[in-house]
């Protein structure tokens, strides 16, 4: 199944889960006095969030969902997606509150919550109490953190995307050397013997972890909607890089 462009990740997860062939995964749990039960995803959700409280059955549902997700041989299977889907009802209010409070994009906050959930799902002990709380807690923490980072930031146009869209209408009209290109400005300017300092491109541990989680999201078929807003960390300013039209006044 191909995710629908523009769809928020929480909505797409349900559609993705329902589309697994030949059918979505079913949980086989044991209920006291009733033997084994086979629960479809909607039935498992009803056990977790329905009005009838059966804490033992709820615990059994969480244990099997998490255990099956961790045993999955590949990232393309349905069990990790099921574990995420079972946790979503605990996250709707949080992501809406976080996005509204800081003016963040709701789709970004949802995506960050899912990535936090995936990260915790890989390490949580299936036998511990409160599995649902552990998964939801990690997702909420990441959602609030991303939303808080959005405060005071201004979105800018994606220059590459705009250029690609314009060129797509009439590729033959593009000259061999564009009349209005871009050039990179460096401050302080280079000396006769080269730049004042070396330029290095580094990846922080959080960025590397983000790439790993992004690959996992791709395996689940959610790469087009699970995305992260990367923001630079603090550091010592020794100069600036600026992008301006070629030939523009400096």
What can you tell me about this protein's structure?
With 250 residues, this protein is mainly α. It is built from nine helices and four strands. The strands form two sheets. A two-stranded antiparallel sheet has the order 1-2. It has a two-stranded antiparallel sheet with strand order 3-4. Mean pLDDT is 75; it is low at 1-7 and 228-234.
Note the topology.
Blueprint: H1 9-18, E1 27-31, E2 35-39, H2 41-49, H3 55-71, H4 79-87, H5 92-102, H6 106-121, H7 131-150, H8 159-169, E3 182-187, H9 205-219, E4 240-245
Antiparallel strand pairs: 1-2, 3-4
Helix pairs in contact: 1-4, 3-4, 5-6, 5-7, 6-7
Summarize the entry for a quick read.
This protein has 250 residues and is mainly α.
Number of helices: 9
Poorly predicted runs are 1-7, 228-234
Structural class: mainly alpha
Cα gyration radius (Å): 24 Å
As laid out across the biggest beta sheet, the strand order is 1-2
Q: Can you give the helix content as a percent range?
A: 40-55%
The global form is elongated
Helix/strand order = HEEHHHHHHHEHE
Strand content: 5-15%
Give the biggest sheet: 2 strands, antiparallel
| Number of separate strands | 4
What is the terminal-to-terminal distance? 50 Å
